[in-house]
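Researcher: We plan to redesign the surface later, but first we want a full-length starting point. C-alpha coordinates attached.
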Protein backbone atom coordinates (compact mmCIF):
# COMPACT_ATOMS: atom_id res chain seq x y z
CA UNK A 1 0.00 0.00 0.00
CA UNK A 2 2.95 2.30 0.55
CA UNK A 3 5.74 2.83 -1.99
CA UNK A 4 8.78 5.15 -2.01
CA UNK A 5 8.81 7.87 -4.70
CA UNK A 6 11.85 9.50 -6.36
CA UNK A 7 10.83 12.76 -4.64
CA UNK A 8 11.55 11.05 -1.32
CA UNK A 9 7.92 11.14 -0.18
CA UNK A 10 6.18 7.78 0.01
CA UNK A 11 2.79 7.31 -1.64
CA UNK A 12 0.07 5.51 0.25
CA UNK A 13 -3.29 4.37 -1.05
CA UNK A 14 -6.21 2.55 0.51
CA UNK A 15 -7.57 -0.89 -0.47
CA UNK A 16 -10.03 0.53 -2.99
CA UNK A 17 -7.41 2.86 -4.51
CA UNK A 18 -9.72 5.90 -4.24
CA UNK A 19 -7.72 7.60 -1.45
CA UNK A 20 -4.09 8.53 -2.04
CA UNK A 21 -1.72 10.25 0.39
CA UNK A 22 1.82 11.63 0.15
CA UNK A 23 2.82 11.56 3.82
CA UNK A 24 6.07 13.09 5.04
CA UNK A 25 6.87 9.65 6.47
CA UNK A 26 5.34 6.22 6.98
CA UNK A 27 6.45 4.79 10.31
CA UNK A 28 5.69 1.29 11.61
CA UNK A 29 5.99 1.28 15.40
CA UNK A 30 6.94 -1.94 17.23
CA UNK A 31 5.87 -1.05 20.77
CA UNK A 32 3.76 1.42 22.74
CA UNK A 33 7.00 3.21 23.61
CA UNK A 34 7.82 3.60 19.90
CA UNK A 35 4.32 4.98 19.30
CA UNK A 36 4.98 7.55 22.07
CA UNK A 37 8.29 8.49 20.47
CA UNK A 38 6.69 8.95 17.03
CA UNK A 39 3.91 11.10 18.50
CA UNK A 40 6.33 13.29 20.49
CA UNK A 41 8.80 13.65 17.57
CA UNK A 42 6.01 14.62 15.17
CA UNK A 43 4.62 17.16 17.65
CA UNK A 44 8.00 18.81 18.09
CA UNK A 45 8.55 18.85 14.30
CA UNK A 46 5.13 20.51 13.85
CA UNK A 47 3.78 17.52 11.92
CA UNK A 48 0.44 15.81 12.30
CA UNK A 49 -0.03 12.05 12.81
CA UNK A 50 -2.62 9.66 11.45
CA UNK A 51 -2.80 6.10 12.78
CA UNK A 52 -3.64 3.60 10.05
CA UNK A 53 -4.74 -0.04 10.06
CA UNK A 54 -4.91 -2.06 6.86
CA UNK A 55 -6.36 0.79 4.76
CA UNK A 56 -9.74 -0.85 4.14
CA UNK A 57 -11.72 2.34 4.69
CA UNK A 58 -13.10 4.03 1.59
CA UNK A 59 -13.09 7.48 3.19
CA UNK A 60 -10.13 9.83 3.67
CA UNK A 61 -9.85 9.06 7.40
CA UNK A 62 -6.21 7.94 7.26
CA UNK A 63 -4.99 10.41 4.63
CA UNK A 64 -2.24 12.76 5.83
CA UNK A 65 0.68 14.84 4.62
CA UNK A 66 2.26 14.34 8.05
CA UNK A 67 3.26 11.04 9.64
CA UNK A 68 1.29 7.93 8.73
CA UNK A 69 1.65 5.64 11.73
CA UNK A 70 1.16 1.95 11.04
CA UNK A 71 0.70 -0.59 13.83
CA UNK A 72 1.20 -3.62 11.61
CA UNK A 73 4.05 -4.87 13.86
CA UNK A 74 1.95 -4.46 16.99
CA UNK A 75 0.05 -7.68 16.42
CA UNK A 76 -0.96 -10.59 18.62
CA UNK A 77 -2.78 -11.63 21.76
CA UNK A 78 -1.16 -10.45 25.02
CA UNK A 79 -3.48 -11.93 27.68
CA UNK A 80 -6.35 -14.39 27.87
CA UNK A 81 -8.73 -15.05 30.77
CA UNK A 82 -10.55 -18.18 29.68
CA UNK A 83 -13.00 -18.04 32.59
CA UNK A 84 -14.33 -14.58 31.82
CA UNK A 85 -13.60 -14.62 28.08
CA UNK A 86 -11.67 -11.34 28.40
CA UNK A 87 -8.79 -11.10 25.92
CA UNK A 88 -6.21 -8.36 25.36
CA UNK A 89 -4.76 -7.85 21.89
CA UNK A 90 -2.26 -5.42 20.40
CA UNK A 91 -3.78 -2.57 18.40
CA UNK A 92 -2.59 -3.61 14.95
CA UNK A 93 -3.76 -7.23 15.16
CA UNK A 94 -5.61 -8.20 11.96
CA UNK A 95 -8.98 -9.85 12.55
CA UNK A 96 -7.89 -13.05 10.75
CA UNK A 97 -4.96 -13.41 13.18
CA UNK A 98 -7.25 -12.68 16.11
CA UNK A 99 -9.91 -15.19 15.00
CA UNK A 100 -7.38 -18.02 14.76
CA UNK A 101 -5.80 -17.14 18.10
CA UNK A 102 -9.19 -17.01 19.83
CA UNK A 103 -10.16 -20.35 18.32
CA UNK A 104 -7.13 -21.96 19.96
CA UNK A 105 -8.59 -20.85 23.33
CA UNK A 106 -12.12 -22.00 22.40
CA UNK A 107 -13.23 -18.38 22.22
CA UNK A 108 -14.62 -16.15 19.45
CA UNK A 109 -15.85 -12.65 18.78
CA UNK A 110 -19.65 -12.60 19.06
CA UNK A 111 -20.12 -11.20 15.55
CA UNK A 112 -18.01 -10.17 12.55
CA UNK A 113 -18.40 -8.39 9.20
CA UNK A 114 -17.92 -9.85 5.73
CA UNK A 115 -14.11 -9.89 5.73
CA UNK A 116 -11.30 -10.46 8.25
CA UNK A 117 -8.44 -8.42 6.76
CA UNK A 118 -8.94 -5.27 8.87
CA UNK A 119 -6.99 -4.47 12.02
CA UNK A 120 -8.91 -4.62 15.29
CA UNK A 121 -8.26 -0.90 15.96
CA UNK A 122 -9.32 0.13 12.45
CA UNK A 123 -12.44 -2.04 12.66
CA UNK A 124 -13.63 -0.57 15.94
CA UNK A 125 -12.60 3.02 15.07
CA UNK A 126 -15.16 3.12 12.22
CA UNK A 127 -17.92 1.02 13.79
CA UNK A 128 -17.40 -2.10 11.69
CA UNK A 129 -20.32 -4.51 12.04
CA UNK A 130 -21.89 -7.72 10.82
CA UNK A 131 -25.58 -8.62 10.93
CA UNK A 132 -28.19 -9.85 13.41
CA UNK A 133 -31.07 -8.11 15.17
CA UNK A 134 -29.78 -9.43 18.52
CA UNK A 135 -26.16 -8.62 17.64
CA UNK A 136 -23.97 -5.51 17.94
CA UNK A 137 -20.97 -3.97 16.19
CA UNK A 138 -17.44 -5.13 17.05
CA UNK A 139 -16.85 -2.00 19.19
CA UNK A 140 -19.57 -3.21 21.58
CA UNK A 141 -17.30 -6.10 22.56
CA UNK A 142 -14.54 -3.69 23.67
CA UNK A 143 -14.10 -3.49 27.46
CA UNK A 144 -10.87 -1.52 27.63
CA UNK A 145 -8.40 0.47 25.50
CA UNK A 146 -4.82 1.63 25.88
CA UNK A 147 -4.28 4.93 24.09
CA UNK A 148 -1.22 7.01 23.35
CA UNK A 149 -2.45 10.60 23.56
CA UNK A 150 -1.29 13.70 21.70
CA UNK A 151 1.05 14.72 24.53
CA UNK A 152 2.77 11.31 24.36
CA UNK A 153 1.23 10.04 27.60
CA UNK A 154 -0.45 6.64 27.89
CA UNK A 155 -4.04 6.37 29.06
CA UNK A 156 -5.86 3.18 30.01
CA UNK A 157 -9.63 3.51 29.77
CA UNK A 158 -12.61 1.27 30.48
CA UNK A 159 -16.20 1.71 31.74
CA UNK A 160 -14.69 2.32 35.22
CA UNK A 161 -11.52 4.22 34.34
CA UNK A 162 -11.72 7.48 32.33
CA UNK A 163 -15.23 6.39 31.34
CA UNK A 164 -15.89 9.42 29.09
CA UNK A 165 -12.77 8.72 27.07
CA UNK A 166 -13.78 5.07 26.81
CA UNK A 167 -17.26 5.96 25.52
CA UNK A 168 -15.76 8.27 22.91
CA UNK A 169 -12.78 6.15 21.88
CA UNK A 170 -14.50 2.85 21.10
CA UNK A 171 -15.70 4.28 17.79
CA UNK A 172 -13.06 7.03 17.89
CA UNK A 173 -12.21 7.60 14.17
CA UNK A 174 -8.53 7.68 15.15
CA UNK A 175 -9.22 11.26 16.30
CA UNK A 176 -8.46 10.89 20.02
CA UNK A 177 -5.19 8.96 20.18
CA UNK A 178 -3.40 5.85 18.98
CA UNK A 179 -4.89 2.59 20.26
CA UNK A 180 -2.03 0.24 21.13
CA UNK A 181 -4.02 -2.41 23.02
CA UNK A 182 -7.67 -3.48 23.06
CA UNK A 183 -9.47 -5.59 25.64
CA UNK A 184 -12.38 -7.60 24.24
CA UNK A 185 -15.21 -9.52 25.84
CA UNK A 186 -15.28 -12.72 23.82
CA UNK A 187 -17.79 -15.58 23.87
CA UNK A 188 -17.28 -19.35 23.86
CA UNK A 189 -16.43 -20.54 20.34
CA UNK A 190 -19.60 -21.44 18.40
CA UNK A 191 -20.60 -22.98 15.12
CA UNK A 192 -23.06 -21.65 12.57
CA UNK A 193 -25.24 -23.40 10.04
CA UNK A 194 -25.18 -21.36 6.84
CA UNK A 195 -28.11 -21.61 4.43
CA UNK A 196 -27.83 -19.58 1.25
CA UNK A 197 -30.21 -19.44 -1.66
CA UNK A 198 -31.50 -17.19 -4.39
CA UNK A 199 -35.05 -15.87 -3.96
CA UNK A 200 -37.36 -13.12 -5.20
CA UNK A 201 -36.55 -9.71 -3.67
CA UNK A 202 -40.22 -8.64 -3.78
CA UNK A 203 -41.25 -11.73 -1.80
CA UNK A 204 -38.41 -11.42 0.72
CA UNK A 205 -39.21 -7.75 1.39
CA UNK A 206 -42.79 -8.69 2.30
CA UNK A 207 -41.56 -10.73 5.28
CA UNK A 208 -38.09 -9.33 5.94
CA UNK A 209 -38.74 -8.05 9.50
CA UNK A 210 -39.95 -11.47 10.67
CA UNK A 211 -37.07 -13.18 8.85
CA UNK A 212 -34.53 -10.89 10.47
CA UNK A 213 -35.82 -11.87 13.93
CA UNK A 214 -36.14 -15.55 13.06
CA UNK A 215 -32.42 -15.93 12.31
CA UNK A 216 -29.29 -15.12 14.28
CA UNK A 217 -27.71 -13.44 11.24
CA UNK A 218 -29.69 -12.46 8.12
CA UNK A 219 -27.79 -10.99 5.17
CA UNK A 220 -29.34 -10.03 1.80
CA UNK A 221 -27.50 -9.40 -1.48
CA UNK A 222 -29.87 -7.97 -4.08
CA UNK A 223 -28.67 -7.90 -7.69
CA UNK A 224 -29.77 -4.57 -9.23
CA UNK A 225 -31.76 -4.69 -12.52
CA UNK A 226 -33.27 -8.02 -11.37
CA UNK A 227 -35.70 -9.32 -8.75
CA UNK A 228 -33.06 -11.79 -7.55
CA UNK A 229 -31.67 -11.67 -4.04
CA UNK A 230 -29.16 -14.02 -2.46
CA UNK A 231 -30.41 -14.67 1.09
CA UNK A 232 -27.88 -15.80 3.69
CA UNK A 233 -29.37 -17.22 6.89
CA UNK A 234 -26.77 -18.13 9.51
CA UNK A 235 -27.87 -19.76 12.76
CA UNK A 236 -26.08 -21.12 15.79
CA UNK A 237 -26.08 -24.89 16.17
CA UNK A 238 -25.14 -27.00 19.20
CA UNK A 239 -21.57 -28.34 19.33
CA UNK A 240 -22.73 -31.89 18.55
CA UNK A 241 -24.67 -30.85 15.44
CA UNK A 242 -23.69 -33.26 12.64
CA UNK A 243 -23.45 -30.46 10.01
CA UNK A 244 -20.20 -30.34 8.09
CA UNK A 245 -18.05 -27.60 6.56
CA UNK A 246 -18.00 -27.14 2.79
CA UNK A 247 -15.67 -29.52 1.02
CA UNK A 248 -12.37 -27.73 0.34
CA UNK A 249 -12.90 -27.92 -3.44
CA UNK A 250 -16.39 -26.39 -3.12
CA UNK A 251 -15.17 -23.57 -0.89
CA UNK A 252 -12.41 -22.82 -3.39
CA UNK A 253 -14.82 -22.98 -6.32
CA UNK A 254 -17.34 -20.65 -4.63
CA UNK A 255 -15.03 -18.12 -3.03
CA UNK A 256 -11.92 -18.13 -5.12
CA UNK A 257 -13.37 -18.81 -8.53
CA UNK A 258 -17.00 -17.59 -8.54
CA UNK A 259 -16.84 -14.78 -5.96
CA UNK A 260 -13.48 -13.47 -7.01
CA UNK A 261 -11.99 -14.54 -10.36
CA UNK A 262 -15.18 -15.03 -12.36
CA UNK A 263 -16.74 -11.99 -10.68
CA UNK A 264 -13.71 -9.89 -11.66
CA UNK A 265 -14.17 -11.03 -15.27
CA UNK A 266 -17.90 -10.26 -15.08
CA UNK A 267 -17.09 -6.76 -13.84
CA UNK A 268 -14.54 -6.16 -16.57
CA UNK A 269 -17.13 -7.14 -19.17
CA UNK A 270 -19.64 -4.85 -17.41
CA UNK A 271 -17.24 -1.91 -17.54
CA UNK A 272 -16.76 -2.45 -21.28
CA UNK A 273 -20.38 -3.25 -22.23
CA UNK A 274 -22.67 -1.82 -19.51
CA UNK A 275 -25.78 -2.78 -21.46
CA UNK A 276 -25.22 -6.47 -20.66
CA UNK A 277 -25.23 -5.92 -16.88
CA UNK A 278 -28.91 -6.85 -16.27
CA UNK A 279 -28.39 -10.20 -18.01
CA UNK A 280 -25.07 -10.77 -16.26
CA UNK A 281 -26.67 -10.02 -12.89
CA UNK A 282 -29.38 -12.63 -13.55
CA UNK A 283 -26.66 -15.16 -14.38
CA UNK A 284 -24.43 -14.24 -11.40
CA UNK A 285 -27.28 -14.40 -8.90
CA UNK A 286 -28.15 -17.90 -10.12
CA UNK A 287 -24.53 -19.09 -10.21
CA UNK A 288 -24.14 -18.19 -6.52
CA UNK A 289 -27.08 -20.53 -5.86
CA UNK A 290 -28.08 -22.78 -3.03
CA UNK A 291 -25.63 -24.12 -0.48
CA UNK A 292 -25.78 -25.31 3.11
CA UNK A 293 -22.90 -26.03 5.47
CA UNK A 294 -21.82 -25.76 9.10
CA UNK A 295 -18.55 -24.32 10.30
CA UNK A 296 -16.78 -22.24 12.96
CA UNK A 297 -18.52 -18.84 13.27
CA UNK A 298 -15.61 -16.80 11.92
CA UNK A 299 -15.26 -19.05 8.86
CA UNK A 300 -18.94 -18.56 8.06
CA UNK A 301 -18.97 -14.79 8.68
CA UNK A 302 -15.88 -13.87 6.64
CA UNK A 303 -14.83 -14.54 3.08
CA UNK A 304 -12.23 -13.19 0.65
CA UNK A 305 -13.16 -10.05 -1.32
CA UNK A 306 -10.67 -9.45 -4.08
CA UNK A 307 -12.68 -7.59 -6.68
CA UNK A 308 -12.09 -3.90 -5.95
CA UNK A 309 -15.09 -1.64 -5.51
CA UNK A 310 -16.26 1.58 -3.89
CA UNK A 311 -18.99 1.51 -1.30
CA UNK A 312 -21.43 3.69 0.61
CA UNK A 313 -23.39 2.25 3.53
CA UNK A 314 -25.95 3.88 5.80
CA UNK A 315 -27.71 2.72 8.94
CA UNK A 316 -31.41 3.57 9.03
CA UNK A 317 -34.05 2.79 11.67
CA UNK A 318 -34.91 -0.85 11.21
CA UNK A 319 -38.54 -0.06 10.37
CA UNK A 320 -37.44 1.98 7.33
CA UNK A 321 -35.51 -0.76 5.57
CA UNK A 322 -38.20 -1.84 3.10
CA UNK A 323 -38.92 1.77 2.06
CA UNK A 324 -35.21 2.39 1.51
CA UNK A 325 -34.60 -0.74 -0.57
CA UNK A 326 -37.73 -0.10 -2.68
CA UNK A 327 -36.66 3.52 -3.25
CA UNK A 328 -33.18 2.42 -4.36
CA UNK A 329 -34.76 -0.13 -6.66
CA UNK A 330 -37.12 2.47 -8.16
CA UNK A 331 -34.21 4.82 -8.73
CA UNK A 332 -32.16 2.11 -10.48
CA UNK A 333 -35.15 1.18 -12.68
CA UNK A 334 -35.65 4.82 -13.73
CA UNK A 335 -32.00 5.56 -14.58
CA UNK A 336 -29.57 4.57 -17.26
CA UNK A 337 -27.00 3.07 -14.93
CA UNK A 338 -25.21 -0.29 -14.85
CA UNK A 339 -24.57 -1.85 -11.44
CA UNK A 340 -22.86 -5.24 -11.44
CA UNK A 341 -22.40 -5.32 -7.64
CA UNK A 342 -25.18 -6.42 -5.30
CA UNK A 343 -26.81 -4.09 -2.77
CA UNK A 344 -26.32 -5.54 0.72
CA UNK A 345 -28.87 -5.37 3.55
CA UNK A 346 -28.05 -6.23 7.17
CA UNK A 347 -29.50 -5.69 10.66
CA UNK A 348 -28.14 -4.79 14.10
CA UNK A 349 -29.48 -4.13 17.57
CA UNK A 350 -29.17 -0.66 19.11
CA UNK A 351 -26.10 -0.07 21.31
CA UNK A 352 -24.66 2.56 23.66
CA UNK A 353 -21.42 3.49 21.84
CA UNK A 354 -21.49 7.28 21.30
CA UNK A 355 -20.56 7.36 17.60
CA UNK A 356 -21.87 3.92 16.71
CA UNK A 357 -24.17 4.00 13.67
CA UNK A 358 -26.59 1.91 15.78
CA UNK A 359 -26.46 4.24 18.82
CA UNK A 360 -29.73 3.71 20.74
CA UNK A 361 -31.48 2.59 17.55
CA UNK A 362 -32.35 -0.87 16.22
CA UNK A 363 -30.90 -0.51 12.75
CA UNK A 364 -30.86 -1.86 9.24
CA UNK A 365 -27.82 -1.27 7.03
CA UNK A 366 -28.12 -0.75 3.31
CA UNK A 367 -24.91 -0.68 1.27
CA UNK A 368 -24.47 0.26 -2.39
CA UNK A 369 -21.32 -0.63 -4.32
CA UNK A 370 -19.76 0.08 -7.67
CA UNK A 371 -16.89 -1.68 -9.43
CA UNK A 372 -13.78 0.49 -9.12
CA UNK A 373 -13.39 0.92 -12.89
CA UNK A 374 -16.98 2.19 -13.38
CA UNK A 375 -18.70 5.47 -12.52
CA UNK A 376 -21.69 5.23 -10.18
CA UNK A 377 -23.99 7.11 -12.58
CA UNK A 378 -25.33 9.23 -9.72
CA UNK A 379 -26.31 6.27 -7.53
CA UNK A 380 -24.33 7.29 -4.45
CA UNK A 381 -25.83 10.80 -4.39
CA UNK A 382 -29.35 9.46 -4.97
CA UNK A 383 -28.80 6.89 -2.22
CA UNK A 384 -27.77 9.61 0.22
CA UNK A 385 -30.94 11.57 -0.58
CA UNK A 386 -33.06 8.46 0.04
CA UNK A 387 -31.51 7.60 3.41
CA UNK A 388 -31.53 11.26 4.50
CA UNK A 389 -35.33 11.03 4.70
CA UNK A 390 -34.89 8.35 7.37
CA UNK A 391 -32.15 10.06 9.40
CA UNK A 392 -29.58 7.68 7.92
CA UNK A 393 -26.20 7.56 9.64
CA UNK A 394 -23.24 6.86 7.33
CA UNK A 395 -20.69 4.12 8.05
CA UNK A 396 -17.58 6.07 9.08
CA UNK A 397 -15.33 4.00 6.82
CA UNK A 398 -17.53 4.15 3.71
CA UNK A 399 -18.24 6.92 1.22
CA UNK A 400 -20.56 9.74 2.26
CA UNK A 401 -20.68 13.51 2.04
CA UNK A 402 -22.03 14.47 5.48
CA UNK A 403 -20.31 17.07 7.62
CA UNK A 404 -20.30 18.26 11.20
CA UNK A 405 -23.69 20.02 11.20
CA UNK A 406 -25.70 17.07 9.94
CA UNK A 407 -23.73 14.57 12.05
CA UNK A 408 -24.49 16.63 15.15
CA UNK A 409 -28.21 16.22 14.37
CA UNK A 410 -27.86 12.46 13.96
CA UNK A 411 -25.74 11.65 17.01
CA UNK A 412 -27.10 12.73 20.42
CA UNK A 413 -23.64 12.37 22.02
CA UNK A 414 -21.80 14.28 19.28
CA UNK A 415 -21.10 17.31 21.54
CA UNK A 416 -19.69 14.97 24.20
CA UNK A 417 -17.38 13.38 21.65
CA UNK A 418 -16.17 16.83 20.54
CA UNK A 419 -15.55 17.81 24.17
CA UNK A 420 -13.35 14.74 24.72
CA UNK A 421 -11.48 15.55 21.50
CA UNK A 422 -10.92 19.15 22.63
CA UNK A 423 -9.56 17.93 25.95
CA UNK A 424 -7.29 15.15 24.58
CA UNK A 425 -6.09 16.79 21.38
CA UNK A 426 -6.49 20.57 21.58
CA UNK A 427 -3.79 21.18 18.94
CA UNK A 428 -5.30 18.56 16.54
CA UNK A 429 -2.12 16.54 16.30
CA UNK A 430 -4.35 13.70 15.05
CA UNK A 431 -6.29 15.93 12.65
CA UNK A 432 -6.64 15.81 8.87
CA UNK A 433 -8.95 17.35 6.26
CA UNK A 434 -11.49 14.55 6.46
CA UNK A 435 -11.80 14.86 10.25
CA UNK A 436 -12.15 18.64 9.90
CA UNK A 437 -15.18 18.03 7.67
CA UNK A 438 -16.67 15.52 10.12
CA UNK A 439 -15.84 17.13 13.44
CA UNK A 440 -14.89 20.71 12.70
CA UNK A 441 -11.48 22.39 13.06
C1 LIG B 1 -13.69 -5.46 1.11
C2 LIG B 1 -14.20 -4.72 2.31
C3 LIG B 1 -15.19 -5.31 3.10
C4 LIG B 1 -15.67 -4.65 4.22
N1 LIG B 1 -16.65 -5.25 4.96
C5 LIG B 1 -17.20 -4.58 6.01
C6 LIG B 1 -18.25 -5.15 6.77
O1 LIG B 1 -18.69 -6.28 6.53
N2 LIG B 1 -18.78 -4.42 7.78
C7 LIG B 1 -18.34 -3.15 8.07
O2 LIG B 1 -18.87 -2.53 8.98
N3 LIG B 1 -17.31 -2.61 7.40
C8 LIG B 1 -16.74 -3.29 6.39
N4 LIG B 1 -15.70 -2.72 5.69
C9 LIG B 1 -15.15 -1.44 6.16
C10 LIG B 1 -13.97 -1.68 7.11
O3 LIG B 1 -14.27 -2.65 8.08
C11 LIG B 1 -13.62 -0.39 7.86
O4 LIG B 1 -13.38 0.65 6.96
C12 LIG B 1 -12.42 -0.56 8.80
O5 LIG B 1 -12.19 0.66 9.45
C13 LIG B 1 -11.15 -0.97 8.11
O6 LIG B 1 -10.16 -1.29 9.07
P1 LIG B 1 -8.63 -0.96 8.77
O7 LIG B 1 -7.78 -1.71 9.73
O8 LIG B 1 -8.36 -1.15 7.33
O9 LIG B 1 -8.61 0.58 9.17
P2 LIG B 1 -8.10 1.84 8.28
O10 LIG B 1 -9.02 1.97 7.13
O11 LIG B 1 -6.67 1.71 8.03
O12 LIG B 1 -8.39 3.00 9.32
C14 LIG B 1 -9.70 3.29 9.70
C15 LIG B 1 -9.71 4.29 10.85
O13 LIG B 1 -9.17 3.66 12.00
C16 LIG B 1 -8.18 4.49 12.56
N5 LIG B 1 -7.19 3.62 13.18
C17 LIG B 1 -6.56 2.55 12.65
N6 LIG B 1 -5.70 2.04 13.54
C18 LIG B 1 -5.78 2.80 14.65
C19 LIG B 1 -5.14 2.79 15.92
N7 LIG B 1 -4.24 1.85 16.24
N8 LIG B 1 -5.46 3.72 16.82
C20 LIG B 1 -6.39 4.67 16.54
N9 LIG B 1 -7.03 4.74 15.36
C21 LIG B 1 -6.73 3.81 14.44
C22 LIG B 1 -7.62 5.28 11.40
O14 LIG B 1 -7.01 6.48 11.86
C23 LIG B 1 -8.86 5.54 10.61
O15 LIG B 1 -9.53 6.65 11.14
C24 LIG B 1 -15.18 -3.36 4.56
C25 LIG B 1 -14.18 -2.77 3.78
C26 LIG B 1 -13.70 -3.44 2.66
C27 LIG B 1 -12.64 -2.79 1.80
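Model: Full-length starting sequence:
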Amino acid sequence: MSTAQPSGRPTWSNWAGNQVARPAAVVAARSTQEVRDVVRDAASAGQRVRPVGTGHSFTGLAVTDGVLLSLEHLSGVTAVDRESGRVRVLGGTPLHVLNLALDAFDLALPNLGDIDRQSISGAIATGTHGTGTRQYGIASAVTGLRLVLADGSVLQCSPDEHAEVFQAARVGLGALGVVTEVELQCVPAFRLRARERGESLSAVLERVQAEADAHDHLDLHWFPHTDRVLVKRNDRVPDDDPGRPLAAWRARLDDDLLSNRVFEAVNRVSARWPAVVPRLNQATSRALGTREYTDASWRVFCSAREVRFRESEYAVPRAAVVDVVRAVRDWVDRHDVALPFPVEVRFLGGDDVWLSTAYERDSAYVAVHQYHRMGDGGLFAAFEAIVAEHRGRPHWGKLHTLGRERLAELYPRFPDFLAVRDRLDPERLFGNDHLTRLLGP
